[in-house]
Every structure is written in structure tokens, then in C-alpha cells.
Write a structure and sequence with these properties.
By secondary structure, this protein is α+β, with helices and mostly antiparallel strands. It contains four helices and six strands. The protein has a six-stranded antiparallel β-sheet, with no helix packed on it.
Length: about 140
């Protein structure tokens, strides 16, 4: 029995798995299961081992993708040096040397900011910035 024969087995699980057996990434556990299935093709468990190897490899790909996305999201929420802030009137969070946080934006060469009480281009020495979080999504309203 070949790997191709194992992929083309009948039944809902085999149909569901057939698209996942060949992935670009193979983890050690999935490879181990596949080797065992191919070493003992007459074994009643060889089909199940081959399908399990595909699932393990697919899960390894998904885990790797999720870990990368998690790192990207964590990096997006880090304070960055103020020199790297966008100068295109995008609203940002601003941190200053007095350990206060403001909302602001650059208008021309001037940083406009507000802390909800005081605002203006003066009185603060910004040191870091961070993008604003995305606004909340209200599932009862249609997107604009």
C-alpha cells in the first residue's frame, strides 16, 4: 500500500483528510506517524496512522501561523520612539517624559495633543508613541 492509496481511502474522515495530508510543513510527530504507516502497510492501523500524520502536520502549520500572528499583534502594541511617529495627521497615543499619556496627531510640523483636560502644542515633551487600538465593533450596526 502506498501513501497515495492511503489518501484515497473511502469514508468521511478520509475525504476530509485527503486535502491535508500533503502540506509544505511537516513536523516531527506527523513524520513519525507517516513513517510507521509506510513501514507496516499491512497493519490495520496504517490508514489511521497516515491520516493522523496529516492532521498533526496540518495542526503544526496552524500553530505556527497563530504564533506568528500573535507576535505581530504584540509588536503592534509596543511603545515606539517618537521620532518614528506618523506625520500624516493620524491620531496616535503619546507618552511623555512626565509619564503621562495623551492622544494626538501631527499637523504640519506641530504635534497637537489632548489629555481630555488640557490641549495644545506646548507643555509636553513626547518620548514615545503607539497606534490607537481599533474601535469596537457593534454587531447590531452595519459597517460604514
Amino acid at each position: 500500500m502506498s501513501e497515495k492509496d492511503l489518501v484515497q481511502t473511502d469514508g468521511p474522515l478520509a475525504t476530509q483528510m485527503s486535502g491535508h495530508l500533503k502540506t509544505e510543513y511537516s513536523g516531527p510527530h506527523g513524520d513519525f506517524l507517516k513513517r510507521r504507516a509506510l513501514e507496516h502497510p499491512e497493519s490495520p492501523l496504517s490508514r489511521e496512522l497516515m491520516m493522523a500524520s496529516g492532521w498533526v502536520n496540518r495542526l503544526n502549520v496552524e500553530i505556527s501561523t497563530l504564533l506568528s500572528e500573535n507576535e505581530r499583534l504584540k509588536e503592534a502594541q509596543q511603545w515606539r520612539p517618537i521620532e518614528t511617529a506618523p506625520k500624516d495627521q493620524t491620531y496616535i497615543l503619546i507618552y511623555n517624559d512626565c509619564e503621562s499619556i495623551y492622544v494626538g496627531q501631527w499637523i504640519g510640523d506641530e504635534l497637537q495633543w489632548s489629555n481630555g483636560d488640557v490641549c495644545g502644542p506646548d507643555y509636553i515633551n513626547p518620548t514615545y508613541w503607539m497606534p490607537l487600538p481599533a474601535p469596537p465593533v457593534d454587531p447590531t450596526k452595519e459597517p460604514r
